[in-house]
Amino acid sequence: MPESLLLLLDGLNESLNKIQLGFDAYQNDCFDKRPPEFFCLELNGEAGELANLEKKSWKGKVISPDRFQDEAADVLIALFNYANARNINLGESVQTKLLTIEEKRIFLEGKGEKF
Fold this sequence. Notes:
- This protein is an all-alpha fold.
- The protein has a single domain, classed as MazG-like (Helix Hairpins).
- The chain contains 5 helices and no strands.
């Protein structure tokens, strides 16, 4: 397993959980309760806005870095809200997914293929 992955996994669950709990507390303290479906739609809408900026940039339009940052932040916030509404532990989920990806990468590498 690459050292970079070990470093990433070390403390990932704890750190991400702390951030996720903070988002949940803020959402519950300051905003109306919403169902997971709302946050899923919000997440997709925000991701779409980010994708539209990338499309414009790809076509040659100059986009301020602040706009990319703003939309990326919206996507992350919406993801935390969705995960909290669905009781998904993102730290645990990301850790599990990274290990699955690494297993597949090693398997393909053993066959001379790239992931």
